[in-house]
Amino acid sequence: MAAAVHRRLPGAGQAGRAVVRRDPRAALLAFSTASSEAAYPRILDVLPKLGIRRRIVSFVLPLGYSFNLDGSMLYCTFATVFILQAHGVHLSVQQQIFMLLLLMVTSKGIAGVPRASLVVIMATLTYFGLPEAWIALVLGVDHLLDMGRSATNVVGNSVAAAVVAKWEGELDDPEPAPAPATAKT
């Protein structure tokens, strides 16, 4: 599916790398604060410089921060499955699909709250009748993973804005990058 979208929308798939190359501070800010919402103002400034019109950015980014939480959703799913496998719990295919849908719904709105995914994972464990104390398996690495998923959310939202702009025919040529400052000797 992603390859098909990339073929139909050439250039839109480059947005994630372009954001990181053009101004790495947005991804670094999300990474270091473990909150993708901390990088919102920076991305709001960077995306128009990459040729994505401000009206598209202003529409897509708030929706992305509510619904396009790629990193958070992936982490919640993988962490829950890891915890279940570590304890020898096997779910049927139907239960796994339901767990995925449950995590899709319960992970909405966690972009601005560091380590909120722990609450989502504990709620999922409880729903399936498992002890929420099993969350201890991922507590030690959660902070580092939270940083990574926040940066992933930032890149994912940037790509979403570029895809919508390309789809709407409103992806302009990017502004030239400022020349790097040279030291006087």
How does the helix and strand content classify structurally? mainly alpha
Order of helix and strand elements from N to C terminus: HHHHHHHHH
Quaternary form: single chain
Total number of distinct structural domains: 2
Uncertain residue ranges: 1-10
| pLDDT averaged over residues | 81
**What is the end-to-end distance?**
53 Å
Q: Level of helix content? A: 55-70%
Rg result: 19 Å
Summarize the structure.
The protein has nine helices and no strands.
Topology:
Blueprint: H1 2-8, H2 15-22, H3 25-33, H4 40-49, H5 54-67, H6 70-86, H7 93-106, H8 117-127, H9 136-167
Helix pairs in contact: 2-9, 3-9, 4-5, 5-9, 6-8, 6-9
Structural features, described:
- This protein is mostly helical and 185 residues long.
- Helices cover 66% and strands 0% of the residues.
- The chain contains 9 helices and no strands.
- The protein has helices at 2-8, 15-22, 25-33, 40-49, 54-67, 70-86, 93-106, 117-127, 136-167.
- The radius of gyration is 19 Å and the shape is elongated.
- It starts with a helix and ends in an 18-residue tail after the last helix.
- Residues 1-10 have low confidence and may be disordered.
Question: Which characteristics define this entry?
Answer:
mainly alpha; 9 helices; 185 residues; 0% strand
